[in-house]
Request: fold
Amino acid sequence: MADEWLEHLLETLNRIAHSLEGIEQELRLWRKAGLGPNGRWVSGEDVSHATTKAESEAALPEVLPSPEDLLRAWLSERNLVLQNVTLLKLEEDPWDWFARFLGSRFEHLRPFYERWKRALSLRKEFTLNLQDAPPRQISDAVQFALRLKEASLITDYQYHRLSRTLRVIPAFSSDIINFVTGGWLERYIGRLLWSMVGRVRLKSRQFQVFRNVQLVLPTHQQTELDLLALYGDQALWLESKTGDYSTSVERWKQNSTYLQLPSTHAGIVLLDTPSSTARQMLEQRTGMQVLSLSDLPAFLEAAMRAWVGDIHRV
Reply:
């Protein structure tokens, strides 16, 4: 027992020694940069006072701001008050797999998705005729149905090889309806954002993605953003619609006025791309770029690479 106690004591002392070395190294950096322990600039004679105070409080751990605090600070600079938000983390949850599968293969799964969405509103089953579909589309539709059934997101399905028809019995819970009517697209965009971090060499610890950002405007009106990504003090805002967008245009226009982001960092993702004239009008009124699913990866990569370029120019 005495040996175990002594070994535990030595291990504790070693951890303390390593912590003190780290604190000493940070103090050197503060002195070199002219910074105080709280990260504020101090000048000349104040540096020694600041570091002395830091040394006296060396045992106190550093408290880092939460992602929500960083978002709240960014919004407050624009006189916007955060009410509620969902943090979309780097780690995926089970819903994200279905969002990625649907989004990445939407060209093949669009008929399935449209029938599924309509069936949920009518609260009935649906049948998908795949007689003239290429083999890849049939494979994707049947695989998607299988995975949905395994996750209890549909009640059942049957694929008839001779007639090449897929019969699906939906499940009608509120979380499934929310996912199908728009939640999947927000999740898909969020996953794309996180997938770009390594490609454009952002520091993942400084990158955050927020979903369903509920705000109060200076006019005391309530509003909401679908997705907002932050990297330091830089932002990327995205809205998405799986159906008619006409009722959302005024909200996007109003939010754009307060967020003050360039169109290179503000986008509207639509499953149905409007005509050229309608697209130009929508972009002009909102100050945002209108994007299809195929446009989205290039838009996100260009916006996030611009962040890296801005940092390098500072």
Observations:
- Residues 36 and 49 are 9 Å apart (CA to CA).
- Confidence is low (pLDDT under 50) at residues 17-23, 25-51.
